[in-house]
Sequence to fold (411 residues):
Amino acid sequence: MNFDTIIIGGGLTGLTAAIASAERGERTAIISAGQSALHFSSGTFELLGAVDGKPVTNPVEAMDRLPDTHPYRRIGRERMLSLLPLVQPLLSRAGIATTGNHYINRYRLTPLGKIKPAWLTLDDFATFDSPDRLPWRSVAIVNIADFQDFYPTFLARGLRDHGVECTISSTSIKELDNLRRSATEMRAANIARVLDYSAVCNLAGRIKSVGRGADAILMPAVLGLADDLMVSLLRRLVNKPLYFISTMPTSVPGVRAQMMLNRYFTNLGGTLMAGDTVTGARLDNGRVEAVFTNNHGPEPLTASRFIMATGSFFSHGLVATPSSVIEPVFGLDVDYPADRADWFSKNIGQAQPFMEFGVRTDDSWHPSIGGNTITNLQCVGSVTGGCNPIKQGCGAGVALLTALDVTTPRL
Ligand SMILES: Cc1cc2nc3c(=O)[nH]c(=O)nc-3n(C[C@H](O)[C@H](O)[C@H](O)COP(=O)(O)OP(=O)(O)OC[C@H]3O[C@@H](n4cnc5c(N)ncnc54)[C@H](O)[C@@H]3O)c2cc1C
Fold:
């Protein structure tokens, strides 16, 4: 099989690159092994939340204070400013509605009731202008009875610290009785599968009655696995501000975002090889000629261009052995300190050096093997390292913007 572009990895990075390629009319394929970080998403795409441990208000200004190795600095300010406005419309073309902008961070509510900076947040999650002032005097937190992956008391404590009065209740509908027979079945994704039109109508009635009198209702994000139809229906029926709070994984809104991006890509004519793993490649003269996968066996998958978006350790884009850090598909050069003692900090609260490890690339994101550049392969997203998504709050931004950097022509 031959394509213009083959993308290895179908997380946020791979999907963004694939959509941008397919929208330009390239014959594009994604080969993706399995779940991505989107399945654990908080519902917010982060751009830049902190630099040197200090919270960021204006991400575009704060980028200048990042180290030279950070992907944003490598893309460069001018190019960043031309790519940033492309993100929200791309998500919107895939049907993903978000709130926010790249000039000034908004703030979102975590499941523990903390307030964190946010760039683009799914429309059904609450965001605020200020980290200190919430727009509600009182909220009703409504859990689904027996749902274990959501902690209303922590959320309420955090909200009360911000001066918001909270009531906590749980509610149930008969449609969930089957799941409830086994505690292990009461997971967010399973609940979302059950909540169809009639179940949502029942649920709306219950929520309305317990939420009476509150300025807003907060509930766990357990609706809308494939699209946001049931989310919109419930919000419409409840007919007062209703926002979702992320739960323990699996993240229903994250899976929804992944499915909507997948669907948009395939509707554009893209080929999605889901559940397939690239196991090796044939290279010649500094170029990738073909990749090979588990499902296609000896059949070569060829393209003039390859984009690698296999993620970091979490998705096995990088693998740590006792003595080295490797990139398992091509054996690309990886940047990491030789002494293992420098890989991590014993204080788990501190920034962990391994978070910044990644495939070594040139200015155009081309990797190398043994110092020799691969000219038709580019590595983007969290496989490239150079940043700490946890401490800097920049994970989705790096995914989206590096992907757009390699797929958007320069003017
Ligand atoms: C648990 C978790 C939660 C996060 N939550 C957030 C959040 O809420 N907001 C935020 O801004 N950032 C978040 N991040 C940061 C996250 O890294 C980025 O947001 C971004 O989603 C990373 O995307 P990616 O596509 O580069 O990598 P990944 O999402 O890791 O995707 C890599 C994909 O490549 C596939 N793959 C790997 N090897 C192969 C192979 N050999 N062949 C084929 N496919 C392969 C994997 O199966 C996977 O699907 C989170 C990160 C983690 C780990």
